[in-house]
Each structure stands twice: as structure tokens, then as C-alpha cells.
Amino acid sequence: MMISWTSVAVAGLGASAMGQAFNLDFGVQGRPVPGAAFGAASGQSGQWMKVSGANGLALRSTGGDVTNVKCTLSGAEEGNSWSDPVNGNTGEFAALMDDFQIAYLTDCNRYAFINLTLRGLSRGTYRVFTYASRPDRLLPMDTYIAVSGSPVEGRITQMMTPNVFEEGRTHTVHDVTVTGQGNLGIFIQDGAFDTVLNGVQIVPLQLEGCGVALEPQDAAAQKEDTVTFSATITGDVRGYQWMKDGAPIGDGRGISGATTAALTLREVRPSDNGVYTLRYICGGTTMATRGATLTVDEGQVCPADFNGDGGVDGADVEAFFARWDGGC
Question: How far is residue 157's CA from residue 138's CA, in Å, rounded to a whole number?
């Protein structure tokens, strides 16, 4: 399969899927990354993120949003990068392919390898494009690429043609299903030379996603009432956080369930008035329900109505002295 480096737009991705689409350019910090219109071999356009070594790095999606997906990179020479441009590669192609992460082959290291792990992806199916071709390689080589969840072992066996993406020369392609907590591993090993990683594209095909079966509803309460806001979220939910007027809430002072699907407020007061929203992690993407408004009414306060029955009479005097005699 051969494709010129002219980009092709990817259509048909919903908002949640776009939040799990990644274009990663591995190499030297400070060197240019491809532009957002450049789709490389996959045709997936969008923002490219430069990665030069990674240890728990939070990834940006092709839409430019920081996600809950974390990236860890390890290998024989963890975190090394190298820039090695070759005559013939130009423009966006050169930005992706002419620099890379590298694991050096040494006397003590029979096979140099690179391990890339992504954690926190949404559950579902993806197409993974792994670019692992050193641009100055003049001899045929065998680079082996394995992706967790795929039985296929990819190979890069020939040197690249300038400005042309071709499976087996510049990259491999794996279709995988991500389950559980959303971990995806990519293992790269060169059989005879240093091992390089130019880039990775994670293209979502079909994600489990989430659905809001029940939105939180507005509430009106009297002072010192108990109020509960709740929502029902289905699908690949990884966590919850209630927000009040855009700020996260913690448990305490009559508040419980701040990190569950049901928030309870006890002995509410006017200071609790506001808009309450449930943010939830759907796979590797943070989403939110509608906002529910709480309105607390202090009611009519009459100091003489000591027993709170709505009237002022002798019973209030008796209630006052009963409290007096009780020492409170």
C-alpha cells in the first residue's frame, strides 16, 4: 500500500471518538511537527504532539485537548532522541520521519528495543499506525513491531522512499480491540540495528462510549433541608466528580458523594445555591451532564414564633421556658 504524503481528511468521527484520536511525533524537542492538515499514512488530520521521552505524559488529542490518556516510553536507551535528516524528504513528511526516539544497539544489548505504553484509552477498536524507519538506513533491515491485542506481527523490511508512505517501508498497521482499563502496548525491536520510533497514530474505529440515562434535576429546598442530586451514566465510565459553579466539590460539612453518581447536601443554606454538574470520565475523555440549579429559601423568619408553628401565642412562651429550664 503506497500513499503520497499529501494529507487526506478523516470523516465520520464523533466528538467522543475525536477525543481519543492521537497523532504523536516522536523525536527532538524544538524540531517542527507536521501541520494539522497532514494525515500521514492514516489520513487522520488534526494536531500533532511532539514526544521526546515520556513518563506518565498526558496526551493531547488531534483536537488539541489534554486527555486522561497517559504515555510511557522505555527501552534500551530510554528518552534518547536523534535528528538525522536525509536528502529527499521534505516538508511535513520530513517533520515526521527525519527525527525519532532511538534505542542504541550495544555489545551488551543484542537487540535494541522500544516499549511504548498508553494507559486510559476508551474501550473499543482502533487502527494503530506505527512509524519506525530510520531515514539514513541504506541497507535492508528487519524491524519487528507488535501491538497488544493484535495477533499480527508487523515488519519493516526495506528502506523508505523519500516523501512516500508505504506499509513495510515506513510503518506498520494493526487493528486492535482495547478492553479493561484501556491499556495499549507497542513493542518495537530491530533485528540488526538501532531501533527507532518516528511516530504513532491512534485512529478510533468504534468506541464503547457512554450515555446519560438520567440527568440531574433542578431542586428547590428550605433552609436545613437535605437535597440529593443524581445522574445515571452508562457505558465506559471510569470516575465521577461533582462541580458547583464550575469548581470541584469535596466531601465534608454535610456534603457526601462528591465523587459518586449521587451527591447529597445536608442542612442546606442559601450559600449552597448554585449550579451543580456531574463531570465523568468516559474512557479517556472527560464529559459532563447538564447543570442542575439549587435554590434554597430561608422562609419567613419570626423570632417570636419560638416553636415554629407559624403563629405567636402562649405556646411560644412555654417553649421558650422549656428550653430555658433545659439549659439550652
Answer: 12
Q: Are residues 250 and 270 in the same domain?
A: yes
User: By three-state DSSP, how is residue 325 classified?
Assistant: helix
Query: 3-class DSSP state for residue 89?
Result: coil
Measured torsion, CA atoms of residues 100, 105, 108, 109, in degrees rounded to the nearest 10: 70
When divided into structural domains, the chain yields a total of 2
Predicted structure pTM score? 0.73
Percent of residues, the chain, with pLDDT higher than 90:
52
Separation in Å, CA 146 to CA 56, 108, 167, 190, 244: 21, 23, 14, 12, 45
Closest-CA residue to 146 (of 191, 180, 203, 189): 189
In terms of residue numbers, what domain contains 245? 210-297
pLDDT digits (tens, 9 = 90+) for 53-108: 767 889 999 999 899 899 998 874 545 667 777 668 899 999 999 988 888 776 65
Are 186 and 257 contained in the same domain?
no
Distance, CA of 144 to CA of 188 (rounded, Å): 6
Ramachandran bin of 139, using left for φ above 0, alpha for ψ from -120 to 50, beta for the remaining angles: beta
56 domain-assigned: yes
